[in-house]
Every structure is written in C-alpha cells, then in structure tokens.
Amino acid sequence: MNLRRDVFQAIADPTRRAILLLVASQAMTAGAIASNFDTARPTVSKHLQILTECELLKQEQSGREIYYHINANGMKEVAEFIEPFRKIWDDRFNKLEAVMKKYKKK
C-alpha cells in the first residue's frame, strides 16, 4: 500500500527545501543533486523519494539517467496555504506605508 506523504511534512525538512530550490530552475539527476550536499547519496535519494511521493518533484527518464524537476501543480497546495498569510502581510505593509507617508509629510 503506497500512501501519499503529507506535503507540509516534506517541506519541513531543510534538506528537502534546498533540493526544491536546486531543481526549481533546472532538472537535475540524483547524482548532481547529491553533489550539493555533505550527506551520503542514499540519504539524498530518500529525500528525493519523499518529494516524489508528495508530488512536489517529477521524474523524467532520459536514456539511463533520471532527471528530477519541480512539479508546479504539486506546489499549489503549499501556495494555497500560504496565500492568506501573504494577503495579511500585504495589508499590514500597505497600512505601514500609509502611516509612514503621513509621518513624512509632518
């Protein structure tokens, strides 16, 4: 039985967040990803497995190599969770800006 892991548990780990940042701009092999960390390659492979199970990464085979790339649709769940907080902070910064403009005029 293959249970889908929780996206938020996956991104709670700093190594997995670093992997997501690495592959956000370009697809990379497991070896290329592992070379960016001071951990054993099997450890990085486990992180890749978790991110793939959470559908935050997709695998694409090209010949003998498997490339990992970001799954934008998988990131939607995270973005949708964060959006209300972004709106709250935007409102707060807009209010602060308005106060600062009034203060500047005085």
Description:
The protein has a three-stranded antiparallel beta sheet with strand order 1-3-2. A hairpin with a 2-residue loop joins strand 2 (57-62) and strand 3. It has helices at residues 7-11, 14-25, 30-34, 41-53, 72-105, and strands at residues 28-29, 57-62, 65-70. The protein has a single domain (7-105), classed as Arc Repressor Mutant, subunit A. The protein is elongated and about 65 Å long. The protein is of the alpha+beta class and 106 residues long.
Short description:
This protein is of the alpha+beta class. Helix content is 65%, strand content 13%.
Classify the fold: give the CATH topology: Arc Repressor Mutant, subunit A
How would you spell out the order of helices and strands?
HHEHHEEH
**Given this structure, which CATH class is correct?**
Mainly Alpha
Number of strands: 3
Between the first and last Cα atoms, what is the distance in angstroms? 67 Å
How much of the polypeptide forms β-strand, as a percent range?
A: 5-15%
Question: Which class do the helix and strand fractions yield?
Answer: alpha+beta
Supply the number of structural domains.
Answer: 1
Rg, alpha carbons: 19 Å
* Biggest sheet layout: 3 strands, antiparallel
Q: Please, what is the average pLDDT? A: 91
CATH architecture: Orthogonal Bundle
Lateral strand order in the biggest sheet: 1-3-2
Tell me the name of the CATH homologous superfamily.
Winged helix-like DNA-binding domain superfamily/Winged helix DNA-binding domain
The best one-word shape is elongated
